[in-house]
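Run log, item B.
One chain of 252 residues. Sequence copied directly from the ordering sheet:
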Amino acid sequence: MRSSAEPMIAVRNLDKYYGRFHVLRSCTLDVADGEVVVICGPSGSGKSTLIKCMNALETFDGGEIVIDGVSVGDPACNLPKLRSKVGMVFQQFELFPHLDVEQNIMLAQRRVLGRSLKEARDRSRQLLERVGLAAHALKYPSALSGGQQQRVAIARGLAMDPKVMLFDEPTSSLDPEMIGEVLDVMIQLARDGMTMVCVTHEMGFARHVASSVVFMDEGRILEQADPATFFDHTANERARRFLDNVLHPSGL
């Protein structure tokens, strides 16, 4: 049982290998209840691997992750129960194409939480209203835009009533016009007090919404700072070069 003084997510000295490749190197990170943490860094820096370890979608080789008092790497950890606490939104939408929107959101509620058909449907419709898709409940994913599908994926994660939401580059596969509608939903979640960890290159979101920004490179966490410090006063040379490339591409 987590005390109120303990972080919602605690990562301690995490190590992960793919064969001989050391993808995560002694990563340590705390995420407080209600905090929004953005993880950024160049491709291949270990960002997505770190966030997937938090949800036990990737195993790890050393260290510890504790979420809401539950040790993720413990062999006795109840993974379905853990994942009901930790919602996950991926780069790809991962919706079932043969199910309509409402059915996609209802499925895990019925199978994992044991909700009745009415309870699951009522919760699904409530969340579709929340993400601005109430009129699309009976459509199939193929009839929706990319931004709409990603909002359905967020609603599906929220349907489990999680304590934490993890986002793994949720806008990277979207057209520029669709990115804003997904970020608007994420911004509202942050305002509502949801604990969030977001791997993203959306630096405007990081600057204006994040409680803190984590910068990774070559499997290491090189800096964690509040947005103002990270964007305007970072002392980390590698982070400065990254920001220059992201905020001023091609030297513009």
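Observations after the first pass:
- The chain has one domain: 9-251.
- Residues 146 and 247 are 25 Å apart (CA to CA).
Flagged for discussion on Thursday.
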